Amino acid sequence: MEEDIRIYVEEAPGQRREIIAPTDMGLSLMEVLKASGYDIMATCGGMALCATCHVEVLAGPALFEPNDDELDMLETLPVIHPGSRLSCQIRLTPQTDGLVVRLAPTGA
Amino acid sequence: MPNVISTDICIVGAGPVGLFAVFEAGLLKLRCHVVDALPQPGGQLSEIYPKKPIYDIPGFPEILAGDLVTNLIKQIEPFHPTFTLGERVERFAKLDDGSFQLYTTDGTEIQCKAVAIAGGLGSFEPRKPAVENLEQFEGGKGVHYMVRDPEHFRDQKIVIAGGGDSALDWTNFLANVAADVTLVHRGTTFRGAADSAEKVKTLAEAGKIKLVLSSNVTHLHGNGKLAQVTITGNDGTAETVPLDHFIPLFGLTPKLGPIGEWGLELTDDAIVVDTLDYSTSLPGVFAIGDINTYPGKLKLILCGFHEAALMCQGAFKYIYPDKKYTLKYTTVNGVPTL
Predict the structure, then answer these.
(1) Are both B180 and B103 inside the same structural domain?
(2) Cα atoms in the Cβ-side hemisphere of radius 13 Å centred on B335
(3) CB of B9 within 8 A of CB of B25?
(4) Touching check for A49 and chain B: CB below 8 Å?
(5) Domains of chain A by range and CATH?
(6) Contact call for B127 and A80, based on CB within 8 A
């Protein structure tokens, strides 16, 4: 499909896995990561209410700013990074092509 | 004297699916006892998103998660289910006569003829900060992940960590109870309820509490009992302070917990079931809702309701292998009571 994009998951330093994701299904990054076999609980199903889909954005295109719900939830976490986001709030579109993320440790 | 409860089906998990299982069991005149680690029924609907609307419950174009729980509780009232809330089922044993005994963290014993695990994603456990020797001081040695009894901290020196509502609320409350309260937050601002955040600032300005921003608790020290913590700033400066209790409050996160060690067949932390009656690999133990897995599994509340109905048929046959049962419709007979 012409609208497919590539996102990259840094599984270890210098080791990035490429994932091809469609952009015509309204998927979130969380949904694509889950479907790609990553161990993400996403307890709340994508409502920015559980923070179990926490990722760190390492590189790639500029994303829209997180909304209040997402910022509130990130605030409760013990550790965040400058690029911390909830992957359920990142909608995959042609503009997110080339995004590089790292998954936060489970339970953190 | 331990608390002993006797019932037909012990339902582990008081989420929507566990609650509806009480209804389906009641139609078969089976009594239920429901256990949940959370202090209130409803599971994640009550704990995580009570104010969020759900759109895929048949017959309800839109219903708030909290209202669905209220309705479910009303719906099962005629069957007088009993509850043990705020306790987690820790151990379970199958007896020679095919019945079961379950034991909770607080020593409650439940004797039952069948077990229905409706544990969702597991029990909600406190999210722990990444501090190396945190676990060494758990269990009464100075680290607490929740405030059960504020009196426990009277006239004590405490350090609270976190930036969410519970960290703010407990800081405000314990400021009047504890001898010395320090709140450590890795950020510079609080996004929690504006009035709690304001109150914390006012208390800090008045010198009633100590507010340490842009910092984390990084080390715990003590010999068998917590005595000091090291607080490290984002700029690298570190300070070690004496204390009696460290209370990290970073919200809850679900964990499969002890269910994973009950010897049931699992795949990817989910319990494998037979879709005939949602029985597990151990006869008499059933699993319904988000905690089970089978080909085609969909984690939907409505699928869990369906599973609950079929599970109860299986549980009835397990408990009364010689009795015949014919399906009765509530439209014909109304709802029986127990």
Answers:
(1) no
(2) 14
(3) yes
(4) yes
(5) 4-103 (3.10.20.30)
(6) no
Q: Is A82 on the interface with B (CB under 8 A)?
A: no
Integer Cα distance of B214 and B331 in angstroms: 62
Structure token pair of residue B281 = 């690999």
Decide if A108 and B44 are in contact by the 8 Å CB cutoff. Answer: no
- If asked whether residues B161 and B240 sit together in one domain, one would say yes
Indicate whether B338 belongs to any domain: no
Say whether both B241 and B104 belong to one domain.
Answer: no
- Model confidence at A108: pLDDT above 60: no
The reply to whether B102 and B132 lie within a common domain is no
Distances (CA, A) of B306 to B42, B106, B228, B289: 18, 32, 53, 9
SS3 state of residue A78 = coil
Tell me the mean pLDDT in the region B101-120: 96
| pTM for the predicted model, two decimal places | 0.79
- Has B89 been labeled as part of a binding site? yes
Chain B CB within 8 Å of residue A20 CB: no
* Nearest-by-CA chain B residue for A45: B299
- How far does B228 lie from chain A, in Å, by closest CA? 20
> Which residue in this structure is represented by tokens 């409860």?
B5
Same domain, B135 and B243: yes
User: Does B255 reach chain A within 8 Å, measured CB to CB?
Assistant: yes
Interchain pair B163, A75: CB under 8 A: yes
Annotation-wise, does B124 bind a ligand? yes
pLDDT, tens only, B208-232: 999 999 999 999 999 999 999 999 9
Q: For residue B129, list chain A residues with Cβ-Cβ distance below 8 A.
A: 78-79
**Which residue range(s) make up the domain with B167?**
128-250
For position B72, which CATH number holds? 3.50.50.60
Token pair belonging to B262: 């009950």
B36 is in an annotated binding site: yes
